[in-house]
Write a structure and sequence with these properties.
It is a single chain. The protein is an all-alpha fold and 91 residues long. It has one domain. The chain is globular.
């Protein structure tokens, strides 16, 4: 059973580059802790960690397209991350 968080269609204020870099660092830390505990990363967390630090909308879209095509990214997490960054992402 998977629990998907409820996220508004628009984020109150999209993260800027500095906020995205902070989120990337925070998620990297969480992923390291989870890994140290011997727990497999949930797909949504792995997706968020991968996408968090991408600087531009073009980089983000390219990573999402590639990751969804090869099945390595969680679609719902991609949508949430796009909203958080203020990127237009048609999925």
């Amino acid at each position: 059973m998977s629990i998907q968080p409820s996220v508004p269609n628009t984020w109150p204020q999209p993260f800027d580059t500095q906020g995205a870099l902070q989120l990337e660092a925070d998620l990297e830390y969480v992923c390291n802790v989870v890994g140290a505990l011997g727990v497999v990363l949930p797909p949504a967390l792995a997706t968020a960690a991968l996408l968090a630090g991408l600087a531009t909308a073009d980089e983000f879209r390219a990573a999402v397209a590639s990751g969804l095509a090869d099945g390595t990214l969680d679609r719902h997490a991609c949508r949430i991350m796009a909203r958080m960054r203020g990127f237009d992402l048609a999925l």
